[in-house]
Amino acid sequence: MGASSWSTILLTALTVVNAQSAYSSAYGVYGNSSTSGHITASPTAATATVSQYFHGDAEGYVLTSCSFSQINGTATTYSVQFTVPASADVGPNVLPNIQDPHAKQAQTLCPGYTASDVTRTENGLTATLNLAGSACNVYGTDIETLALEVDVQSAHRLRISIQPAYLDSSNISQYILPDDLVHLPEQGVVQSDTQDVDLQFTWSNEPSFSFTVLRKSTGDVLFDTRGSVLVYENQFIEFVSQLPQDYNLYG
Ligand SMILES: *[C@@H]1O[C@H](CO)[C@@H](O)[C@H](O)[C@H]1NC(C)=O
Ligand SMILES: *[C@@H]1O[C@H](CO)[C@@H](O)[C@H](O)[C@H]1NC(C)=O
Ligand SMILES: *[C@@H]1O[C@H](CO)[C@@H](O)[C@H](O)[C@H]1NC(C)=O
C-alpha cells in the first residue's frame, strides 16, 4: 500500500472529440470498472471532469463525468464510476539500502563536519558544525551548518543536541518534534565542575567532528563516533557509534 493522491481538473468547453477520446482512454485503462455507454451526440460544447491519479511513480487520468450541451438545448450527462485500479495496492519496489549492494555508502562519500566557535556555557558547550568538504547529497541535501549543544543536565544525564543551525517556522517541524509529543528532559541543577558529574564528553575534529561519552564511574564508553562521519541531510541522518558486543541501546 502506498500513498495515493487525487486531484481533479475541470476541463470546460472540450470539443466532443477530446471528450470522447478521454472517455475511451479512461474506458480502456479501467475498462472493467467503467460503465456502459457510448457518446454518440453531436454537441457544440462539452464539459468533462477528469481526475488525475498518482500512485507511487504511476500517474493516470480518469474521466469521471462529462456533459454535453446540444444544439437544441438539451444536456446529456455521462457519469463514469471510478474504481481504484488493482495496481494501487502494489507499492514501489523499495529495497532497504543495507540490503542493496549497489546503494551509495554515505560513510565513504560524505565529508563530515568540522566544529568551530566552541563556547563554554553554564552547563556545557555550544559549537557550530560546518560541512568539512563538498556536499555529498547522497539521500537528500546536506545541511551546511549545524548547531551542537551539549548540556550536563544532572550528574548522570548529558544532553547532546545536533540540529540545523538555521530553522524557522517554515521548516522547524521537519527536524524538531514539538514538546507536547516528545518532552525533553529539563536542565537540572548541576555544578559542572564538581567531581560528581559522571559523564564525560570529549570531541575531536580529526579527521572530522566526532565525540565520545564516557561514564567515568565504570569506564564504559557510551557513545563513540570516532572513525565515522556525521551525515545530516534533509531526508537522511547518519550517526554511527561503536557498540560493545551484546549491547542494548534504548530510546
Ligand atoms: C478486465 O477483465 C478481464 C477479464 O476478466 C481481465 O483479463 C483484465 O485483466 C481486466 N482488466 C483490468 C484493467 O482490470
Ligand atoms: C435534441 O437532439 C437530440 C439529438 O439530435 C434528440 O435526440 C433529442 O430528441 C432532441 N431534443 C429535443 C427536445 O428536441
Ligand atoms: C529553513 O528555512 C529558512 C528560511 O526559509 C532557510 O533559511 C533555512 O536554510 C531552512 N533550513 C533548513 C535546514 O532547510
From TrEMBL:
Residues 1-19 form the signal peptide. GO terms for biological process: carbohydrate metabolic process. One of its GO terms (molecular function) is carbohydrate binding. SUPFAM superfamilies: Galactose mutarotase-like. Gene3D superfamilies: glycosyl hydrolase (family 31). The keyword Signal applies. The keyword Nucleotide-binding does not apply. It comes from the Eukaryota. Keywords: Signal. This is Uncharacterized protein. It comes from Friedmanniomyces endolithicus.
